[in-house]
Predict the structure.
Amino acid sequence: MQEESVCPLCHHGAARDTLKSLNGYCYTCRDCGGMFEIGTGAYRRAELGELHPQISGSVRQLIAQGKVPRIEFDATNGSFQVLPDVRKP
Ligand SMILES: [Zn+2]
């Protein structure tokens, strides 16, 4: 179910859905250009303000190309990564 929320990338109003996998959320943000996913670990860190501005840039770029990117946090090396398109197998 969609709920009103705040975009973790631009901090403007956005709609979000909890993913069926329960590993994160799917956001629809007008200011970022469309839809993207964020994993639970990455989301927690974004809330703490640890999301690098570069990540927002690459996510927006992928959305502009018609993709649905996903932001993940890789705990093994302590860095964020962006998967280019969740709709591709
Ligand atoms: Zn946004």
